[in-house]
Amino acid sequence: MHAYTTALEQGPAQQRLPALLTLIVGHPRWHARFVNTLARMEYVGVRKMLKARHCEALDLDGMHHLLEEASHALRLKRAAVALAKAAGGVEGVRTFAAEHTLAGAAGEDYLQHIDRACAEWTGEAVGSESERACGQWLDASEAALDLPLATR
Questions:
Q1: Where are the alpha helices (DSSP H) in the chain?
Q2: What domain range is 95 assigned to?
């Protein structure tokens, strides 16, 4: 997994990312939809966690993690609504549907790809408890990005 992330960091997409983010942030409605996409991805993560974790194995730390992830989704959704209001109206981010996100389906597909990669890496089925270890790794990676919006 480390080799995978290192390859991504050195790939061509990494070179294009600053210009892309500048373009998105420069268009207030796109910005709102992009943040709504991030909220959708957090929501999908929570949904996956709920499906993958059996109640017999869910402890206080697991419940806390679920709550934190749901909180991230809520905070990002609130940010998307605030950005949309500033751009003229919240209708553009009302739901997580395609017309209310910026490449929302692609973001969700990315998470599905991560699930498959984790399953391959651990040798377990997609949706298994192995996702907890992968999820913890992803959380650490997210924290390493130090995105201020994600923590507000």
A1: 2-9, 12-25, 28-52, 60-86, 104-122, 130-145
A2: 29-151
